[in-house]
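Figure S4 source data
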Amino acid sequence: MSDNVIELVQEAQKRGKFSLADAIKGRAYPEKSVEVYLDAGSAFELADITEELKRLDPEDAQYAELSEKVLELEAKILESKITFDMRGVGQEVVEKITAEANEKHGEDAEGWAKYYSCALVASNIVQVSDKDGNVDDSKFTADEVAILRGAMPIDAWQTLVETMQKLTLAASYFDAVTDAGFLQKS
């Protein structure tokens, strides 16, 4: 029995082979969930009422009325919440999207930029959830994301673009915290 244990220990200590591609597949990129709210009309109205409340005396009857309206608007805004779970992509995906943008839009700088940003955002979306937790985990296309871009408030779109940029360019963050020997900088 002790010979068997020694063999098991020796086998466990042997160096083995591994696949680098399998080791990094789907794990090498940062992930982040971002919430966006689609009811821009209520948000605009809420901002106006909030400014009005700052000018009113809290004892004023209109203050109480507007405070109630604030609660209603906040509830409406929360109802419009969508959560995007996003993951960065590698250089190969960026190059593929760049080539597609070049092929589809060539010298049309505006069309190229719109396609490029929509395709990159699409490639970063893992899934989307509504306020009730219902999930859409389909693979989004640049054209579908372009429709979202046109329909959602600009600040929501900017949140998605900024998150995509942070996640896709995260390698530069890694460089900032390590040296060439992969040691933490002190």
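Figure S5 source data
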Amino acid sequence: MAIMSAIGMGIGAVGAGVQFFQGAKMKREAEAKLSQFRHQELTNLAENLKPSLEAERQMQVAASKQRAAVVDVSQGMDAAQAMGMMAMGLGQTQDMEMKAFSSMLDKEYQADQVRVQEEQNMRAMIEKRKMEELQSLKAQKMAGSQMQTSAIKDLGSMALSAGLASDKTKAAEGMTTSLFGKAG
């Protein structure tokens, strides 16, 4: 029976040792990965987004042609008619140019909004991925530490059981088992 106990203790000790070293390896790998952990550099895919402003350019060209036509037509008129014609024609031209300019500003603003939204989405997605990776590495490290602790605890329990079994055997033989000498 004593040989079976010794074999069981030996197997238990080997198992606890293997578990301890596996936990140490797992913990070491996680620590190595954690030390190499770097956040990705963020880039905005919409950064170079350029809205099409062709319609506004055509409006400006048309306004320039209209202005030139008003000036040409007004040259054949007397001063009062020319001034009235030019005031009306240039007013319409200015309105056309202001609409084109306003449209350009609106498109640029919308493009800026798309760029910012893309930046926010990208940051959120990458940060979520990185946090999941970081949590996984920390969990791996914790699991390794727990394996080591469990192995030490198992080995301690096994040693305590062996000691108690030895004390029980010695007590059955009438021998003292006190660490501090004979009981008083």
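The chain has one domain: 2-172. Residues 74 and 85 are 6 Å apart (CA to CA).
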